[in-house]
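Re-run with default settings, no changes from the original entry. Doing this only to confirm the output is reproducible before filing.
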Amino acid sequence: MERKESVIEGVGVIDEVREYRGRKILDLARKLSDERLPDSFTPELAVDVFYAFKLPLPFVKERGGEPFRRNLIARTLASPNIWKVKPYTVADSLTSTVAAASLLEKLAKTLSVDVPRGASAGSRSQAQREITEEQIAQALEQVATEAKTAKDMKRLFTGLSAGAGSSLSFDESMEDILKLVRETDISKVLEKLEGIKMPAPRGKHERSTMGWIEGIELGSDLERVYPSQLALPRLYFYTLFADSQLLLYRKVVSHSKGPIYVLLDKSGSMVGSKIDWARAVALALLKRTAAEGRGFYARFFDSVAYPPVSLGPNFRPAQLTRLLSYLGRVKASGGTDIAKAISSACADIIKEKGKVSDIVLISDGEDRIVPELVAKELKKANARLHTVMIHGQNNYLKQISVRYMTVKKLEAKEILKVVDFE
């Protein structure tokens, strides 16, 4: 049997494991494309595109491989636009897979435009050998945006769920992630979270394998092992493990509380930067709930309270993707009914068996409410109301809120103020 080899120097033989990766990339590209992939888009090509993104400085070998594959990889590596993608894919198998599938899908669409339906196999094959540098550069320009958002989503998930953000679990949602990137403006929301360092939780804490890093200690819990320990010789590592002398992160979570429930106003006046900022606050609060082992709800409202999306302490990437899709797809429109939104949140929280919960209401509306009635519902739900007014004022809410904020500048430091409470 003839050995299949990569056309990229140093990669070597494309064995069964690498071929499986190539087939997965093609399968993802096929699901994203409306067209059948060309016959020349083989698993070997997909593997080489993957390594073109993953390796820091790949280059094509002097000989070997089919002409179409060599041509395509050479032109991809020669394109200046590949350096727009690489910051998000180098040494990262997940984002390299996303980028490879995306590039192949876009090039397949290029071929389907160049070759009319019903064209002979010969003319189709000729067109496949003539993918231009310009077409590859245009495709890479779009791939860069998708790779960046995929990287941001991966960072978000791995930061939210210690131990659950493995390649295997995140890999399950790559198709949904790419569709989310293309069909929503979630990238704007993720950008607002860049560089934000979450504050440590206040109040009483208890030790946990998950949560906030409080310091360093000795022990044998491999889920909290300090990275430097992984560089130790194997025998020494096992000895320290047996004696509970490994360096570990010491982590804490707040005492058990009810969920953080985010109510997001989507009325017509919230269009644009207001609703993007509100979504970013929701994700920042999600980070806090994950670290504290609390539940999380998000619900949009205008004159109607829409169905909520919730996440428990131990969620999977597919659930996070659904939440991001919920946040990314909603458009600002409609009126404002704050009382109905709070009432709906209280009804959900009552199911949490009486633990103290926090409702964070984000709005710019001047809706009239009856403070006494809303306060009664909050007390019944054992919930505290935190009101965040964007460029607005509401004296009714101010009377019943444990915390009332007026936000004038939609900046990262304002997001931190909202998230940082006892």
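Residues 119-128, 162-168 have pLDDT under 50 and may be disordered. DSSP finds 17 helices and eight strands in the chain.
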